[in-house]
Amino acid sequence: MSVPATALDLGRSAFTEHRWSAAFECLVRADDDGGLPPQDIELLASVAMLLGHNEEAIGYLTRAHNEYLTVGDTDSALRCAAWLIMFLLDAGEHARGSGWLGKANRLAESLEHATAGVGFLLISVALGSLRGGDAEAGYVNFCRAFELGESFNEKDLQAMGRLGIGTSRLALGYPEEGLRTLDELMVSVMAGEVSPIPTGIIYCAVLGSCRLAQDVGRAREWTAALERWCGERPDMVMFGAQCQAYRAELLILHGAWDQALEVARAAEGRIRKGDPDATFGAWYQEGEVFRLRGRAEETERAFRTAAETGFEPEPGMALLRLLTGRNSEAQARIRRAVAEADPGNRRRLLPALVDIELAVGETGAARAAVEELLAGLRDGSQLLESAGARQAEAAVLLAEGDAGAALRASRQAWRQWYVLEAPFKAACARVIAGRACAALGDADSAAMEFEAALEEFADLGAAPAIAEVQALRNGGGEVKTALTPRELEVLRLIAAGESNKAIARQLYLSEKTVARHAGNIFAKLGVGSRTAAASYAFENHLIG
After folding, report:
1. If one looks up domain 478-544 in CATH, what number appears?
2. Residue 409: how many CA atoms within 13 Å on its side-chain side?
């Protein structure tokens, strides 16, 4: 005769099968019925974290810590304390986190020998050093933690130590070494050797490192893997928002701006309380879509919300200041951000620094930034980094009066953006190429480059870029190209406040076709937004 499964058995089974809600319900019922041993209280804490029940998770981890101490398992108690420290500090609860750190340090000092629990505590200390800008100190402690993980065959500790080693090397300016370490780590994660919470932390941190190293291929691969992992755990709250924020960034690069906006907003809806990374990523990417489309007020709101996490929304905010004509402020912001950044983030910010320095006429400062970008390119440099550096170089060469070299560099950048499937960036490279052709006296080639860029910008709805190209095409003069009858129909509906989707429905067109018409209208009228187009239309009696 078989013995009926208990609530505890069912909870453990549901956890193994990644059914977090069922695991939580069964483990809570088992706890209510007769209490749980400390290892199952710790398991319940993990499930509560994954479901976004933050306060319950903290309570269960605290109970597990105390229960382990009661039964004399100091090592496991120390592990619980270390997870509490990491969880609290990540949630911005620095006072509670600091209190637990002091308590854990005293507990560690009572041990005669280092243990795996000491290794977990080293992870929390190393994370504090890394976030505080001392990557070298973080690296040392991550290495010690990893060694303890190997000594005690503690897979989660090994994984967290290796993650810290890889991210530290990236922060210290050794991208190839850091990425190799992270690739090795991901083999263990994909093999299922690491428990759920460290697995989610690792996925998100590795994606962040791919962004830092400007490795689009890796970022795309690991974003898809994280999306699959989250999708197999549909009731999981933790990590879901970060997955969506990373997707939004890739979609922006690849020109799917409407989808990126949808994904960023989906991420905002899944953010758990005290998740600054996901909060920042979701709002920053929403702001980027608005900025590229010239919607300054919405961009400002999104970036300010992102900034509430404590992370600075750069280079987006500096580029927004440039877009709205506050050039001196843009320069001050980007210069400060670059000066304060670690080596990896500094390289990510340099292309924006070049654009802003050129806009304010500081060609020498822009040249210095380009030289730094070019000096950092290696044989193994990522295509994204190389394309950004070549495009920045082309812009500086053009400002310096070397149109021939600028043309060569811009076309090299265009080819690389094309391979990366980055249409907006590729179109920007064509604008530089067109300017170079015009400077060389080749008006026909310049017009061809501008037309190709304009068509791409119109598809994307990149209003500021459209206005820039139109100004270049017309030499700053009046727009003389007449609107077609279809464009007048679209303009009439734009002026009525209709969205592209509504216009498409009324005129029996695709949204993409409407977006193209809208871009052409903006270009012909020399305006950068729907509001400006409507105002121009009324003032010039283009519509009834």
Report:
1. 1.10.10.10
2. 22
